[in-house]
Every structure is written in structure tokens, then in C-alpha cells.
From TrEMBL:
Residues 19-444 form the Aminoacyl-tRNA synthetase class Ia domain. It comes from the Eukaryota. This is isoleucine--tRNA ligase. Residues 270-294 are annotated as: Disordered. InterPro entries: aa-tRNA-synth_I_CS (IPR001412), aa-tRNA-synth_Ia (IPR002300), Ile-tRNA-ligase (IPR002301), Ile-tRNA-ligase_type2 (IPR023586), Rossmann-like_a/b/a_fold (IPR014729), Val/Leu/Ile-tRNA-synth_edit (IPR009008). Keywords: Aminoacyl-tRNA synthetase, ATP-binding, Ligase, Nucleotide-binding, Protein biosynthesis. Residues 270-281 have a biased composition (Polar residues).
Amino acid sequence: MDDVCEGKDFSFPKQEETILHLWSEIKAFETQLARTENSPEYIFYDGPPFATGLPHYGHILAGTIKDIVTRYQTMKGHHVTRRFGWDCHGLPVENEIDKKLGIKKREDVLKLGIDKYNEECRSIVTRYVEEWEKVITRTGRWIDFKNDYKTMDLKFMESVWWVFAQLYEKGLVYKSFKVMPYSTGCKTPLSNFEAGQNYKDVPDPEIMMAFPVIGDPHNASFVAWTTTPWTLPSNLALCVNANFTYVKVRNKFSGKVYIVAESRLSSLPTEKPKQTVTNGSVDGPKVKTKGSSSGKTENVLDSFEVLEKLSGASLVGKKYEPLFGYFMELSGTAFRVVADNYVTDDSGTGIVHCAPAFGEDDFRVCIDNKIISKENLTVAVDDDGCFTAKITDFSGRYIKDADKDIVDAVKAKGRLIKYGTFTHSYPFCWRSGTPLIYRAVPSW
């Protein structure tokens, strides 16, 4: 052995294979388990991978660390059973079957039959088991592949439900909502890590709309800005920054009175709107921007007369006329101004429109200000990314496809101030290629 080690042709991989062969020949792992059978048990839960893909560096790294833990505990005098497992549920399996069968919506699954869909999923979950066993064994890890477990086993699923039932009965879990990046293509929320995997520079509609202030002596309107018109039907509040100075200004051409942050006055269109409707679509004061929405500061006061300066804090509590009437049952608490420091003055108007089901800050602010509660939150977009029956004018429409018609509806109400195109970096689902949205999903 010494002679071999001193030779220049010594191969570590070959030496590893020699050791693996010896372990197999003397049944080293099985013998260790037999010898420690009566020792104190050390329980090690091994989070299972999907067998629909091949092992990669991350699996090998984690598996090596797990192997160190179990070997160490065995050396400390414990009996450590180690069973490999397979995660048979969730997105990777379903995504493959959806592509295979051309499934686009939940209705497609129901039409096929849930039993048939499940069988299709089961058929691929163990596709690469042999390759996994070969790679994991080659890394030197001691783990039992013959007595493995699968999350689709009835006993496993029932054990998980039993554990959850115990937590529920003891009052240790409750149902609520969490706003998360959501893929309408895969019908599932994604982690923030996944959401950051695929950004693209894309053009989106950019609009400014008016929210008339109830009881204002000048008939002023708050002006908010958004690049997601599809969220407007779910608007429940407007948010300002209590520390900003706001201005009430009159357009010298149209006579209309607006309220915006003083530092964002330049974002308002400075000429009298000359909007027409061509083929039912908006053809008005358009702008094309790249980056944050901003206007020119020169000559802005040639178009506007400053009537009053207001602190952001003084605006809190003021009520406004809703843009749409879909949530009038909440009018007792909704459609009013709140304040939060997440409102910035580097884009928009310094007034943010809040749709609590479709924004993390929107959700938090509306909960904190008791505009909604977690119990009465209505998510008016279904799992496929289509408006629910609640949004009667756009029910069943895919949200991004409805953007243009929603802008047209805002214009028809006389509430459109500016319409344009905004090019920005936007996250897309790395599996389906569809744009991600932020959506409240039920969570325990």
C-alpha cells in the first residue's frame, strides 16, 4: 500500500471504488446496524428529493453533511436507521404531466379526471431511482434504498394528516393568508428565491387615475399611478407618506384639481388632455418611459396653480370615490387614505393605490388600518390568473389580457389622467415562462 501511495499514478477515484467494493462485500452498513440494534435510538429525518430529476451538486453536498451526522451519532453509541425517501408530490411532477397532456387550467384536470391525472403523475415519480442509487452510493453515503419511503404511500400521507390534526386540535395552527410570488402558469406560489431566477425587461401599461375626494371644497382628486391596471378592480385604499408634503393644484387648462406629492408634481401631464377613443381603445396623452415614471420639472407651474400645501399626515382618513363598485360592502372601512413609510417619491405620484390581495405592503397596510381582516379578504383572481365572478365586467378573463380593457373602463369613467408604456425589469416563472404576480394565498 505504501508503494502504491508513493507512486505518481495513484488514483483517488479508484481507491474510493475499492473501498466501496469492500463495504459491499462485507455488508458494512448492514453489519453496523445489526451491531447497534440494542443501542439508544437516534432519529434522523431525511428530507427527500424528487426522483423526476437527476441528482446535482446541491443534493450531493447536503447528502454528505447528512452522512457525517449519522456516522457521528453511530460513533457516539446510537442506533441510527437511515431510509432514503422520495418526494412524489408537488410542482416538478405536475409540471411535467401538464406539459405532456397539454393541461392549461384546473378545468382541464377535472375534465380528464383527478384519478387519471394522479395516475399519470405516479407513473413518472420513480423514473430516475436507479441513477440516484448509483450516484448516492458512489459518494460513499450509507443509506437504505431497499427500505425506502415515498410521500405518495398512503401510510405516509395519513401520518402527515395525523400530525397536522394533532396541531389543529391543540389550537397550534390557524388559517390565514400570505402574499407571495405566484405563477399563473404553474398554478402555485413560488419562493422568493425562485422568483428572482428569471427577470426580463418588458413594457407594461402605465396609468395615472383620479380618485375624487369626498367633501373637498375644490372638488379635488387624489392621483395614483400603477403599472398593474388589473389590480384596480380590487382597490380598497390609497396610501401616502405622512412625512411628505403634498400639493393641491389646479390644471390651468382643464380646471381639474389634483393632489400629489410636491416632489412628484412634475409627473402630471402638463397640457390639457386631448383624448379620443379609436376602436374602443385609449388614444390619449401617452408617454414612453424607461425606468421610473418621471416628468420634466421645467414649466410645470405654467400648467398648474398651487392652491394649497398639505402634510401627508393631514390626508389620513379622507374618503374618496371608489374607481369600481365591486367591493362596496366594505365601504364602511375601505376607500380611505392611510399612511406608511413604504411610499416613496422616486416614482409615481407619492400616492399608492392599495389592492391588499395583490401586494405584500398593500396587505400589511390594509390589515394594520383595519380596512380588511384576514377573515374577510377576498382574492378576486383565481388559481389560473383569471378574474372571479366578483369582478363582473371582467369575469373569467386572464388578468394581463384584461389590462387594456380596464384602462378603457377607467377612461370611460372620466378618471384617466395619463396613459403610457413603462419598460421595467419584471419577474417571470422560470418553469412556465408566464409573468409572476403577487397574490394572497391561503396558508396555515
